Amino acid sequence: MKIKISNLSEGIHPFSFDELIGEVGLETPFFGMVAVIGELNKLHNQIVLDAKISVYANFECDRCTTAYKNLIESNYRMVYLFGKEPDKEDALNVTYLSIDADKIILDKDVRDYSMLAIPMKKLCDEDCKGLCYKCGKNLNEGECECSTEDIDIRWQPLLDLKKKLNIS
After folding, report:
1. Which of 35, 73, 103, 159 is the most buried (most CB within 10 A)?
2. In contact, 57 and 31? CB cutoff 8 Å
3. Host domain of residue 9
4. Please, are residues 50 and 79 in contact by the beta-carbon 8 Å criterion?
């Protein structure tokens, strides 16, 4: 994904790309095409790029282990400054371009921001009930026959006393 910036007039310029995931260096769990839409704001000595990345990925739910696919979306902003890179770089999302640079290559940024957008907890649904801890049945498909009443043996003497006194 290359944006030609030579002879680009000052102002806002929209752009969009659709490429196969392999062309930008993405691999499993991503599949299909990666779409990038955004705008480039060229000023006298800098370019500000705002982009939105959309790509599909295959995951396994962390609660119920069901395979599912999900649309991953990520927004990012990158500032490109023309000139010599300083000795000490403190700013994030700032890239220095030579004065005679004629294009911006987005592949690395698209790959990095797509990877960062993978959720820490992968859920097939926000209300996923997961698996029964006793029998392993997927509770999203229905209830299981397991008893949910586990009694800590340390409480058993009090329960016996409760039965003796007929307390509900």
Report:
1. 35
2. yes
3. 2-116
4. no
Residue 167: pLDDT above 80? Answer: no
Are 90 and 162 in the same domain? no
pLDDT at 168 over 70: no
Are residue 19 and residue 62 in the same domain, yes or no? Answer: yes
**Residues 135, 69 share a domain:** no
- Taking the model in full, what pTM does it have? 0.75
49-59 pLDDT tens trace: 999 999 999 99
The answer to whether residue 105 sits within a structural domain is yes
| Gap between the Cα atoms of 129 and 132, Å rounded | 9
Cα dihedral: 78, 81, 84, 87 (round 10): -50
Structure tokens at 59: 């995951």
Q: Is 165 helix (H, G, I), strand (E, B) or coil?
A: coil
C-alpha–C-alpha distance, residues 112 and 25, integer Å: 9
44-65: average pLDDT: 93
Domain count, the chain: 2
Structure tokens at 67: 């395979």
**Which contiguous run of DSSP H or E holds residue 96?**
strand 94-97
> φ and ψ at 79, to 5 degrees?
-110, 125
